[in-house]
Design a protein that fits this description.
Layout lengths: L2 H15 L3 H22 L5 H33 L18 H15 L3 E2 L5 E3 H4 L11 H4 L19 E3 L5 H7 L6 E10 L11 E11 L4 H16 L5 E8 L2 E10 L16 E10 L1 H6 L8 E8 H9 L12 H4 L3
The structure holds phenylalanine.
Length: 339
Amino acid sequence: MTDIARLKDKFLKELKKEKSPEKRRKICKKYIEEELSSVFCSLKDLSSKERAKVGEKANEFRKFVLEQMSSAKGEAKEEKEWIDITLPGEEPELGSSHPLTKLQLRCKDIFLRMGFISVEGPELENEWYNFDALNFAKDHPVREMQDTLFVKQEKRSALPSEKKLLMRTHTSPVQVRYMEKRRPPFRIIVPGRVFRNEATDSSHEINFYQLEGLMVGEGVSVANFKAVISFFFRELFKSDVDIRLRPSFFPFTEPSFEVDVSCSLCGKKGCSVCGKTGWLEVMGAGMVHPNVLESAKVDPEKFNGFAFGLGLDRIAIIEHKVSDIRLFYSGDLRFLKQF
Ligand code: PHE
């Protein structure tokens, strides 16, 4: 038996005794660094014939030890990475709908049950749909009433109002966009985000959500409006709330109303949410102005209807007694996780 064969024998015996892959790896390392390196060192003392023979055997053995070493290393790694599949897993954190989204869906659901359909329109609107088509006079100060975020455009003042861009200040432009392409009767709601050029405070944001409503047909009356809206609020608040209409002004409705709902929190007795009045102001509304029907190519002699605009944020603030509208847009999880 050659010295190398004897060394291999010894190596295998040592290896066999060791169960732990980490220790087996150490044995291999010892053989490479100590045993084999002394064999290679002693080669210089041999005759060239012997040197070639022993050298070849030693190299073969070295290769063998290295192979053992890398398989022990692999096993050691596997051992370290072993996972207990019987342990309970880490539960992924699930997101949830935003409180305003939830409210929007509840509102939609009630109107869909009354035969309304839900449609959408662009947030980047032009001046024609946002103002002109809705009977806002060209130079009337009412355009300033809603502080508008206009979009910078080259030679803007020379452009026709169809080309002048702005962020829509209300969802009402969708009334015209919807009507001009279809024939009455219409029953639609338009939930959506709107934008105003506001200095923000606890009750003002530069963007918020509205839910527009429009019902147009033959002989639609204010009584129809009251019936629809009373049903809506009773379903929404799950309580027998009352509705009150007060005269108001919007260029796109005539007559126009502010709609108040009796406070469902105190039952009209007066509380901090309703400012001790027993009533909550929740929407603007009115009978669609004939000029708006004309802009949308609907014959005002034959058809009429009502429209309303509900402020979703305001309803959410009332329902959840939220102190600051800006919380809805802050992305603060401590706030959002409460819903
Ligand atoms: N668009 C109005 C607003 O933003 C609300 C409204 C809608 C009023 C429809 C009347 C009819 O204040």
